[in-house]
Amino acid sequence: MARAKVLTLVPGPVERYATVHSVPEPELLRRLAKETYARTRFPQMQVGHLEGAFLRLLVCLTRARRVLEIGTFTGYSALAMAEGLPPRGRLITCDIDVKTTGIAHAFWAKSPHGKKIDSRLGPALSTLKSLKGPFDLVFIDADKENYLNYWEACLPKVRRGGLLVVDNVLWSGRVLNPRDRIDHALADFNRHVRADRRVTPVMLTVRDGMTLALKR
User: Fold this and answer.
1) Which of 69, 142, 144, 191 has its CA 20 to 30 Å from the CA of residue 122?
2) How many Cα atoms within 13 Å fall on the side-chain side of residue 186?
3) Smallest Cα–Cα separation from 136: which of 155, 117, 163, 154?
4) Is the backbone of residue 71 left (phi > 0), alpha (psi -120 to 50) or beta?
5) pTM metric for this prediction
6) Which residues partner with 117 through β-bridges?
7) How far is CA 207 from the centre of its chain?
């Protein structure tokens, strides 16, 4: 399979420079990234080293003990965040794809941090109804047309002072001039978050765009 292009809003040389000057990628995560490119149709869905390291750092900075992830894919982001959790920390991750979560489970089993991860297979909106808060951090990176629904389902479960992190909010810049339904869904979601008085949001140009929102 040809290597898919990774979505990023900065020039390749700048991205590589930032990578070199950041914490090295753990060997197991590097192997997981390679496996993802070899065995999945859309490997660019994986968060990648820089974003994974950033997520791990956010878990550490917030001193999170309970993390919720919407969108597992092959488990890179879940494992990266689990590495930042304390020994008794817990991360619940939701997805519907049996094949990609199977890859995730195989790699989590090779890590001492894998025991912190609880995978829930099924529609996330249904799973969310059964989950009780509070969560310290939520990471949303799943089907874009449901972002607003995920946001509204997750926000009440986040503690005051907790953090919501949302990926792909710039959508390769297409939110500037929305055309198809996903473009419009993300543009509408971004407007909703900006106007949501329950949070203090900041949109970053990391990779394909990330919004960080502190719950008031």
Assistant:
1) 191
2) 27
3) 163
4) left
5) 0.95
6) 91
7) 12
